[in-house]
Amino acid sequence: MAKLQPVSRVDRALKVVQAHGSRRGVRERSPGWFRVYVAVWGIRHLRRLLGSEPVVVYRAEIEPGHAIEIKHLTETYKGKRVRRR
User: Fold this and answer.
1) 67 is a domain residue
2) How many CB atoms are closer than 10 A to CB 31?
3) 14 in a domain, yes or no?
4) Could you tell me the pTM of the whole model?
5) How far apart, in whole angstroms, are the C-alpha atoms of residue 53 and residue 8?
6) What is the distance between the terminal CA atoms of the chain, rounded to a whole angstrom?
7) Suppose 24 and one of 6, 31, 33, 36 were both cysteines; which one would form an S-S bond, judging by CB atoms 3.0 to 4.6 Å apart?
């Protein structure tokens, strides 16, 4: 079974507004709610493309006397540096 990614509060709120906009704008033919639906749909997909949510890649408990070293590799896309977020 695949492990689900945690959903942020912002994405959860956008999902609720998108569902409401879909229901009122598409099914009930309300032009204002349809615009809200399209805008929120675009925002959610843009957030997903940009990767605006931080992701925990490693979590562990550190015992007394142990140390950790944190390194960061420069993010690249086809050899070019990616703009900082």
Assistant:
1) no
2) 8
3) yes
4) 0.53
5) 8
6) 32
7) 33
